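Q: Could you fold this chain for me?
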Amino acid sequence: MTNTSRLDVLNEASDERAAELLSACNASPRWIERLLADRPYVDVESVLRTGERAARSLDWTEVCRALDAHPRIGERASGASTEAEWSRREQSTVGTADAQTQDELRAGNAAYERRFGHVFLIRAAGRSAGEMLVELRRRLDNDDARERTEVTDQLAQITRLRLETLLAG
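A: Sure. Below is the predicted structure, expressed as structure tokens.
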């Protein structure tokens, strides 16, 4: 399908179906409500702008709701859902990393979760396992406020990439 026809699907779908499509991009109910409320969209760029802006404006409770749908870096997402399929593709470089890097990512994930109380979120698309490990280690030194800012930014980046994928068909 072309971008236009995927945009038509998003615009014309029932609220329930559109929410299902959007939930693969960001699982925050508030984010989904915002995207639904602004339908119909005139073009793909308006969806992308609205989606990114809405993701960046989520309060921490809603960011955490979105985080609940994300697997740990290096953990293969299970299931046949669109979100799981996209997670597996986005994190594909981790599976090709050497055993030491994979072990260090697992240990880093555990340390991060102990420190911050939620999964380590990073835009994995376009990054190697080594790059993600470096970022994980750096972010372990963040204070809570700084880390919340970084998590929200990463969520917005992931949301935009997934919206692009959704609308590209």
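A (continued): The CA atoms of residues 14 and 145 lie 38 Å apart.
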